[in-house]
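Entry for the shared binder. Reason: the reviewer on the internal report wants the predicted structure included alongside the sequence.
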Amino acid sequence: MEKYLIVLKQKRDVDFLKEYKAENIVIHLGIIVFAYLSKDEAERLKRNEYILSVEKDGADHHDVEGVPDLRHDTAETSYAFDFMNISKFHEEGLTGKGFKVALLDTGVQKHSNLNIAGGINVYDSTLPWDNTLANQHGTTVAGVLNAQGLNNEMLGIIPDAELYAVRIDNGNGYINTTDWSSQIAGISWAVENGMDAVNCSFSSPIDSEARKTAFKLASDAGIAIFCSAGNTQPDGDSVTDNSRYPAKYPFVISNANINDQKQRHFNSTVGRGINFSNGGRWIKTTTTAKNSTDISTEYATVTGTSLATPATLGIYILYKQKYGESREKILQRMSVNAEKLGSYWEYGAGLPKYPTKDYKIIQMRG
């Protein structure tokens, strides 16, 4: 028997699955069911009148996300922080306080310059979310948002927001090989726990109907979902659409990577779904220590759309704190105030910045 992801047409009792000899049944978001089935029973289930889709649980293909660079940077804020004029928000007392953000990633190690509100390991509940980590990825992404600026070290964009580490990795060390079921369980946790925004710095060329349904339900619940566009664009090619999932979904906010010259990093994925661009090249951030059970004091410089994505999420939360409007109006404000960098195909609306223009209705996607 193998693990399957089942999407129901509507909420209902799932006792009927016993007719298909289903085992270990778990329900997420009311209509997404995890269950162990034989291949024959799974095929038979597809013909049931209550079923929208049945697919075997899979894992994303590996795309490189967040590559460490051999470069030292002693700046207390990143150029992404400075480009967006984040200090103006902070001067107004806007630092994310009162907002809740989930980081779907590889877990976050305890760090002397981080203040993580809590976490969960949705892939393996027997392992903690904050140590015995197989990868630094989640800890580096966390720093962009949550670094506290202690001891003259780096300062994050929303240091006073509640950041929750939702560990979804399968323990193999790569964020982009996480199982779809873990991503679904993670986004379900975010809905159940009232998150305002979710960061998803992972991407893949393949999709899952169950994952798409889960992310749409989370979006419908009002959560702003920020996804990395991916780092798979061939050097010199700015034409081919290499859009990745889940960033490709029209109900999430997809983010490209620009360097400190405000140019698209050569491998930042392009396509119709790009919403914003942000700094993700040589970003100094928190990282894990060699012994993952320790409290880390380490930093690294990291490159990828994985770092650009939380930067955009961070300024979204600051806009939300400043204006208190709906997600759609906030995203429109960000778009109106974004610095235009080039075509929507490569840059989306551009670089989000501290607001200087009034909100008006525009079309976000090109």
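Summary line for the report: Residues 2-56 form a domain with the Alpha-Beta Plaits fold (CATH 3.30.70).
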